[in-house]
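Quick question, first post here. What does this chain look like in 3D?
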Amino acid sequence: MKVAFDESLVTGNEMIDGQHKELIEKIDNLLTCCEEGGGKVQAIKMLDYLAEYTDFHFGEEEKLQEEVSFPGMPEHKKNHEDFKKAVVELHEMLEEEEGPSDAFVAAVKKNVVDWLFNHIKTMDRALAAFVQK
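> Answer (accepted):
Ran it through. Tokens below.
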């Protein structure tokens, strides 16, 4: 399953869009690793890196929200926390298994890819529009 940044994910904010491209590339690398039979250790390292980059990106978005007094910040921040919990659960799932399983890949698609694309198209676009005003 190939995951890529495309025009449907553009928010219009250069910083956010650039970081989303990087984040989606990390997700694609994780999925490719899983689908090509990468081992448990490699998948864990990639998931750890994804988690680190997500923390960085969410921190940057939240700083921007504070700078512009974004009224949707509490909900946006809670949404970020929910995503972080989902990544922790994926990590636990991977630790319990012998390697990345089909169930793990399905969970990544649902809890990372689908979540992120929806988040970008709704919450991040709303933030970018507010910043542009």
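Residues 66 and 98 are 42 Å apart (CA to CA).
DSSP finds four helices and no strands in the chain.
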